Amino acid sequence: MRYLDELALAVPDVLLPGPGMDLSKWAVIACDQYTSEPEYWQKVQDIVGTSPSSLNLIYPEVYLGDPGADSRIAYIRAEMKLYLEKGYFSEAEGFVYVERRTNSGVRRGLVVCLDLEHYDFRKGSTSLIRAT
Q1: What whole-number distance in Å separates Cα of residue 73 and Cα of residue 66?
Q2: Do 83 and 93 reside in the same domain of the chain?
Q3: In angstroms, rounded to a whole number, what is the distance separating the alpha carbons of residues 58 and 53?
Q4: Can you tell me whether residue 116 is helix, strand or coil?
Q5: Per-residue CA distances from 10 to 55, 94, 97, 101, 120 (Å)
Q6: DSSP per-residue string spanning 13-72
Q7: Could you give the CA distance from residue 41 to residue 72 in angstroms, rounded to a whole number?
């Protein structure tokens, strides 16, 4: 990983879904608007089925209060190990441009590594990393 201290960020080493992955099942929108909607997560599980998916690598907030947290975490860890062993990923270094189409238009983003020691959420902050 290359660090850019003057910008408080780094160029990340990333694992991307490898060739042949069904991206319609791989990609999961884990945004705040779905954190309290168990029906959304059930629908995603129905779509994914047994296919490799990032769904199997995350712990959605909606389940934080449920019993069985240890077994869910164990499952996620086992899936991570399995995905690495089966070569489901391609390794890359660089920023990742993401685009998501919504009802209100196209949302664009950039995945980078931020140094959160330089983050300040307070109004009027002039830190390198701050809330908008």
Answers
A1: 12
A2: no
A3: 10
A4: helix
A5: 26, 9, 15, 27, 18
A6: EEEEE-TT--HHHH-----GGGTT-HHHHHHHHHHHTTS--GGGG---GGGTTSS-HHHH
A7: 14
Supply the range of the domain harboring residue 65: 19-87
pLDDT in tens, 63-116: 888 899 999 999 999 999 999 999 999 999 999 998 888 889 999 999 999 999
Task: Give the three-class secondary structure for 112.
Answer: coil
How far apart CA 16 and CA 119 sit, in angstroms, is: 27
Q: What is the pTM of this model?
A: 0.75
**Same domain membership, residue 51 and residue 83:** yes
What is the per-residue pLDDT for 100? 82
Identify the DSSP state of 3: E
Number of domains in the chain: 2
Comparing C-alpha atoms, which of 128, 110, 93, 92 is closest to residue 11? 93
SS (H, E, C) 84-106: HHCCCEEEEECCEEEEEEECCEE
